[in-house]
Model the fold of this input.
Amino acid sequence: MFSEFSEEQIRRYARQIIMPEIGGGGQKKLLEAKILVIGAGGLGSPAIQFLAAAGVGKLGIADGDNVEISNLQRQTIHAGNLGMNKAESARVFVEKLNPDVEVEVHPFHINAENVRDVVKKYDIILDCTDNFVSRFLINDACVIEGKPFVHSAVLKFYGEIMSIVPKETACYRCVFRHAPPPGSVPSCQEAGVLGVTTGLFGTLQAAEAIKLILNIGETLTNKMLTVDLLTMEFDIVKLRRNENCPICSGRIREIIPEKYVERCQL
Amino acid sequence: MIRVKFPSAFTSITKERRIEVEADGKTVGELLDILFERYGSTLRERLMKDGELVPFINIFVNGEDIRYLNGLQTELKDGDEVAFIPAVAGG
Done:
């Protein structure tokens, strides 16, 4: 088993390989895994950091934004890269941290036209975006393509996270049928967000992705974990597949671009 | 007593995060009426449209989505915990 690793890899991943839940076999699975992180912002930055550190073999990073000074309060991987495209900036970070990781940069915003082509190249997708249209789009594309993904969203001191195994467990649209009217739910830009909140939830997304790759432990499938850092309440609620869900039920099998504006109603 | 937990997204309306309400034996719908009385129409507008719960906020009783219990007719008993989970999008 260990002959498959270089001396450096054995040292680099020693704290993981030593755990019976991972071992040499699990480390090999991680090195062969292809994970796509959509959004290299507050959630994506910590997720990218820990997935790269853990030795995920291929990391896709999609983001069309450039690094701004207001990002650095929570997006620490972009230190020193003001003005650079975030996916490119994340690549610089990953290449310094772990040369085992092949990074594929998608330096653009995911939209209805490109989402399926991008997600189909990966095993697991992390939704680290910051708006409802992207969230419904990623959900629908991942379910149609049969790609497990991890959803998380945050605001202020609060966050939510769930994992989705398409056609087996509740999808995001099973839980929330469509987006709220524009302007009714504030964004982080409007209401603020603590760096710790995004750091926590992005890190939890990485943990879920690693467990999904390794098929270990219990994932947040058919469950949503919510955390309020102001009160330190961690709650898990049960979720169920909605048999009337237009995506999960297979009634809708294509991404219809006109649907992905504002409310994302199908 | 029924324990009610509001998400951060509601605290601009409710000012409180955790309250206890005397609503034993009442339904979730009746509990909402008590809350609308207490916090005014802004909360009602946030939660309801055409007499139904909006599809981007879910209500859970003891961790179970009321859609899979008895909806707004779900009966509450002493000690139950009611939580609201809204869709948020930040990242």
